[in-house]
Hints:
This protein has helices spanning 14-25, 61-67, 81-84; strands at 5-10, 31-38, 47-48, 51-55, 71-74. By secondary structure, the protein is an alpha/beta fold. The chain is globular.
Amino acid sequence: MLTLRLKLIIGAGDAGVGLMEELQNNNNAAYTPVCFVDINAKKVGREINSVPVYPADEATFDILADFGVQEIVFALPTVDAQKKT
């Protein structure tokens, strides 16, 4: 039996949404996306295929625990050097 690991995706842009869709549509995927974190105010507060988008400043350990997040993946195709530190 396949055990699903719950995953938070950082980045609700094209890369993050593409990853979410692949995980949701692949019956053999070992992961299921449970929430996004994004800095884009236009995306925050929305749901994408039933996956909620939270602002970066609310991505606390409490949110991770509420969703039972086991892993975090960064879906950010380009990040400038200042944002990486």
